[in-house]
Backbone:
């Protein structure tokens, strides 16, 4: 009787997403990366928060709106303080929150995303068998080619990985959600 060994992994970004946008300084499309700090503007009953980005070529800045003209009472004190102190965890949370990029029509530079693959369920026997299904939880929609994933996990070359996939000895199933 044959059975499939299922191994589970999660892919998570290791740094904030970069943005592709037209740069007024360079006069063409460039890659903007997060400067890891927020700008907070409190004006009476309105509060604005941005995550600051800079063109990697010329430094021209772009402010990614996190909150626009909201009632300050709607933000928890702890969250507000994390913006003021440029809290690293908050920078990471905002800078990898695809809903914020989508809302602002900010194009994520997907090819630039640095990530790590974290094992959730792995077994040695599976690695030696010829019938493996690799299940990848990819809630950040990070583009990863199946052969690259297989090569990395099974420690084989890209060509060997392509062969394993073509022969059906290894299959990859991607879930666009968190485990
Ligand atoms: Zn520029």
Residues:
């Amino acid at each position: 009787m044959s059975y499939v060994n299922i191994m589970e992994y999660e892919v998570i970004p290791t740094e904030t997403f970069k943005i592709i946008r037209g740069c007024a300084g360079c006069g063409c499309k460039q890659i903007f990366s997060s400067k890891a700090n927020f700008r907070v503007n409190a004006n009476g009953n309105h509060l604005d928060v941005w995550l600051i980005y800079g063109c990697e070529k010329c430094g021209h800045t772009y402010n990614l709106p996190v909150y626009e003209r909201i009632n300050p009472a709607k933000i928890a004190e702890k969250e507000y303080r994390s913006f003021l102190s440029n809290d690293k965890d908050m920078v990471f949370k905002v800078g990898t929150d695809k809903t914020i990029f989508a809302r602002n029509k900010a194009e994520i530079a997907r090819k630039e995303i640095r990530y790590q693959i974290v094992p959730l369920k792995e077994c040695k026997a599976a690695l030696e068998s010829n019938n493996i299904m690799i299940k990848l939880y990819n809630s950040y929609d990070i583009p990863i080619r199946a052969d690259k994933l297989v090569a990395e996990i099974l420690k084989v070359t890209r060509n060997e990985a392509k062969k394993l996939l073509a022969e059906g000895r290894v299959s990859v199933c991607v879930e666009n959600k968190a485990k």
